[in-house]
Design a protein that fits this description.
The chain is an alpha/beta fold. The protein has helices at 13-25, 36-45, 64-74, 107-130, 137-153, and strands at 5-9, 29-33, 52-56, 80-84, 99-102.
Length: 155
């Protein structure tokens, strides 16, 4: 099974390094981008299959809300997590963001949120595939989800 690939976008090199170490330690593949334009280039290149995006809100050139909107336009089911130093995610972002976290959120909460969104994406893919195999699709999707959840418990 392929390990999930996260695209982490932040203009702060220290945060990019933090994301690489954190998610790498927990078995995720990680690629980083220093801003929205670079993140979109990675997505459009097709060289990598990104499973989720974690982006800072405040970045020069293209803020996180603008990036999230463009990501969802290109790939509507791609989970996007916004990280912000503000009290709340600015008004334009919630339409394109699947989860918002404050800077300084405990590591276990960040990991939980990533797993929740990835599991939701897997369920979405499984239900989409079940349309193509009517009699077996939902049953197989249920078995796959059960195996996934059991594997998380035994980790």
């Amino acid at each position: 099974m392929k390990r999930p690939l996260l695209l982490c976008v932040d203009d702060d090199p220290g945060m990019r390094e933090f994301y690489e170490r954190l998610f790498g330690r927990y078995g995720y593949g990680v690629i980083v981008a220093s801003g929205g334009r670079q993140a979109l280039e990675l997505l459009h290149s097709g060289a990598v299959d990104i499973d989720a995006v974690i982006s800072d809100y405040e970045m020069p050139g293209m803020n996180g809300a603008e990036l999230a909107a463009e990501l969802k336009r290109c790939k509507p089911t791609l989970p996007v997590i916004m990280v912000t130093g503000r009290q709340a995610v600015p008004g334009e972002a919630p339409h394109f963001v699947d989860a918002a976290l404050a800077k300084g959120t405990p590591v276990d909460e960040i990991l939980d949120q990533v797993e929740i969104l990835l599991a939701s994406q897997r369920r979405h893919r499984a239900s989409k595939m079940s349309r193509y195999v009517p009699g077996l699709g939902r049953g197989l999707a249920s078995v796959a989800m059960a195996v996934f959840l059991i594997s998380k418990v035994w980790r």
